[in-house]
């Protein structure tokens, strides 16, 4: 066998190994390990979804607090920079759908009742975007996830354009949650045990926000691990 052929085979095997390890890193562990299907567990899964989306969003300056013990359940407190554009509205729709997307990523369905408000706000954002004649998200459109029946969750029923845009934002949110892999589950676990996580505690768990210095200068979008 020639040296050239050996080199080609080694390269192919290395690329395949890297791709395989990359996929493994993004595999979400079984939900029963770290995400008990209790009221508290559901809130933690939901809020951790919002938190990782905010963490990766280039319009978010800092994630101040993630909690599962608020007066209306859980909440995530974060600050955004002052950019007004349809890209920002797309990001906000994703931030709002990230709780629902996390629930579907973990259990294959929406488990909290508190998602209704998120869904309505995401719809308002999408209506604003479509009203401006824009249906292009800052990220590439992905195939629609069959897991979640959007129309069944909305009344009045979604128009085709609303459905496409919401499904796009939702699927992007779900990919963001998945891309955090184990660190997403660590965040859920920490929320379950501490109930509230401040900025430093969240930073200890999630990957570094290396784009932080240029927040506000970048096009609104999401940077995932
Ligand atoms: Zn929510």
Short description:
The chain is mainly alpha-helical. Helices cover 57% and strands 10% of the residues.
Structural features, described:
By secondary structure, this protein is mainly alpha-helical. The protein has one domain (30-214): Methane Monooxygenase Hydroxylase, Chain G, domain 1 (Up-down Bundle). 57% of the residues lie in helices and 10% in strands. The protein has a three-stranded antiparallel beta sheet. Helix 3 runs antiparallel to helix 4, helix 3 (39-56) packs across helix 8 (181-194) and helix 4 crosses helix 7 (160-179). The radius of gyration is 19 Å and the shape is globular. Mean pLDDT is 82; it is low at 18-27. The chain binds zinc ion. Zinc ion is lined by residues 46, 50, 99, 115, 118. Zinc ion binds next to helix 3 and helix 5.
* CATH fold-type name: Methane Monooxygenase Hydroxylase, Chain G, domain 1
Attached small molecules = zinc ion
User: Ends: how far apart?
Assistant: 40 Å
Number of strands: 3
Radius of gyration, in Å, reads: 19 Å
The parts where pLDDT drops under 50 for at least 5 residues are: 18-27
Number of helices: 9
Feature tags:
225 residues; mainly alpha; Methane Monooxygenase Hydroxylase, Chain G, domain 1; three-stranded antiparallel sheet; 3 strands; binds zinc ion
